[in-house]
Amino acid sequence: MVDIGRERSIIALSIFVVFLGFMTALFNGREDHVYRTLVAMIGLSIPLILPKKLPEPPAKLRPFLAPLYNERTMALLAVFIAVHVSLVNVPFTHYDLFHKDWRNADMISHFLGGLTVWLIVVEILSELDRIGIRLSKREAVLYGFLIFYALSTGWEVAEKLSETEISFIRESLANKLRDLLMDTLGALFGLWLVRREGYPFSLGER
Which residue spans traverse the membrane (predicted)? Predict the structure, then answer.
């Protein structure tokens, strides 16, 4: 009997949850959510398929592909995506908690998003020694936060600039600051996981 493993089971379950969202989008005629869930299902399938099809990635790409080959990191990403997709359109309902029915739901997505983005960035940084760029533990964490805030701030700026094109995106400055706060709390939780639990990876002795 094949041992699927906890993380692979979480990824598979997340894909199933997203599939329920896809079916809901079809029933509700939400074209935007159909595309969103399709992309999510395809994306979450990559960490299940890629390691089998390409067990040894090119040496120069290994640091950047490291999160895809780490099922623990991908399991956390899968949970984030499944939760976010379900908030945008709760399966088997017409509720859009993210944009209409409970606008505070984005706090959940920002916390989980902050967690996964920070982990992915730091995991890549910690693997750069494979291509000759060795960072200390402190440097990996520091640069991880710098890149993380650049990405988080960039996302909020992009949202603000898109308000004229997308009618349902209307957020105040206070909301933007709250989003960044939740991003930060997620990232700090990721730091705690790595340093105290060694999950989903360990920075080791550097």
Answer: 9-27, 73-95, 107-128, 140-157
